[in-house]
Design a protein that fits this description.
single chain, 311 residues, alpha/beta, Rossmann fold, 11 helices, 8 strands, binds thiamine diphosphate, binds iron/sulfur cluster, binds magnesium ion
Length: 311
């Protein structure tokens, strides 16, 4: 090799080193949907949350929604970090308050697509009351709940979703509290779209996200995902990969199943599918109809672009 060629090779190697890893992160297919300046993310190896984010970003891309009119709201927790990583108008609210915040946003700016993305503890524990009332009102929100059966961020405490018998840091001899069956909770309160998938079902989950983006009203998607560091470790279930294998072997798709029958037992079959998909007037539609009927011309509906109404 000539001196010149050796010199070129050395400077190429130096340039490559300065550039960093050979896979340029800005070339990742979902990079345009992420705040890449915040990457690397905080999630543990084999945690399932990242896969759900990938499906969500793919759904945004494939539906072609106007990203300037799409907002994401999270509460607190490992899943609650999602809002901070998405390149959307994003709100990382206090614990349990994603739904009320999102409700206010939707009422003030009805033209926005408002998506809540948070954890099982955040949405069904401290935020449970907001969850049931938003479903009851058929508030126009899409709610993505990552259910890892535990409070991940704070050390693996029992959640309202922890299956009977599963070990958590606050139930070291196994959980004896009956957990929520979240699709049943959402459906019985009035949600108009209810589905459950695991984060192994990437195509079906992406399709569910796309469908829910196109629907109105309270759309609820539960995603079962591994918390490798706490749930899997405390229950000696291996890593997230082992849990993905478990989903592969034990998830059963039953579209249209009665949500009352989709309870999840510890390491038992996980019933997945679309359980509810129906139309019912949303909160804002009901409000408009009601005031148009009772107040007639005196009623000035909220303009779609929101804001204050001046006579
Ligand atoms: C008012 C209040 N109470 C408690 C906490 C502590 N806290 C933060 S995240 C969290 C649990 C989150 O669990 P989950 O929503 O399941 O999210 P994960 O970390 O599992 O994704 C708790 C109890 C808090 N931040 N604020
Ligand atoms: S603690 Fe659990 S939920 Fe949180 S990032 Fe780690 S694996 Fe994921
Ligand atoms: Mg959780």
């Amino acid at each position: 090799m000539s001196d010149r060629a050796v010199q070129d090779e050395v400077s190429e190697a130096a340039e490559a080193k300065a550039r960093g890893p050979s896979v340029a992160t800005d070339e990742h297919p979902i990079a345009p949907y992420l705040r890449m300046d915040r990457i690397p993310h905080i999630w543990c190896p084999t945690c399932g949350i990242g896969t759900v984010v990938k499906c969500f970003a793919t759904a945004l891309e494939e539906t072609g929604v106007n990203l300037d009119k799409t907002s994401i709201v999270s509460g607190i927790g490992c899943t609650g970090r999602v809002a901070g990583y998405m390149k959307l108008d994003a709100f990382h609210t206090t614990h349990g308050r994603a739904i009320p915040f999102a409700t206010g946003l939707k009422l003030g700016r009805p033209e926005l697509l408002v998506i809540v993305f948070s954890g099982d503890g955040d949405l069904s524990g401290i935020g449970g009351n907001h969850f049931i009332h938003a479903a009851r009102r058929n508030m126009d929100l899409m709610v993505i709940l990552v259910n890892n059966f535990i409070y991940g961020m704070t050390g693996g405490q029992n959640a309202p979703t922890t299956p009977l018998g599963a070990r958590t840091s606050t139930m070291p001899y196994g959980n004896f509290e009956r957990p929520f069956n979240l699709p049943h909770l959402a459906a019985s309160c009035g949600a108009t779209y209810v589905a459950r998938w695991t984060c192994l079902h990437i195509r079906r989950l992406t399709k569910a996200f796309k469908e829910a983006i196109g629907r109105k009203g309270f759309r609820f998607i539960e995603v079962i995902a591994p918390c490798s560091t706490l749930y899997a470790r405390l229950n000696k279930l291996g890593t997230g990969f082992n849990l993905m294998q478990f989903y592969h072997d034990n998830a059963e798709i039953r579209h249209g199943e009665d949500p009352r029958k989709v309870d999840i037992g510890f390491q038992e079959k996980i019933i997945c599918g679309k359980f509810v998909d129906e139309e019912r007037p949303t909160f804002l539609e009901m409000m408009d109809q009601h005031y148009e009927k009772t107040l007639g011309d005196k009623y000035v509906p909220m303009p779609p672009e929101g804001g204050m109404i001046h006579e």
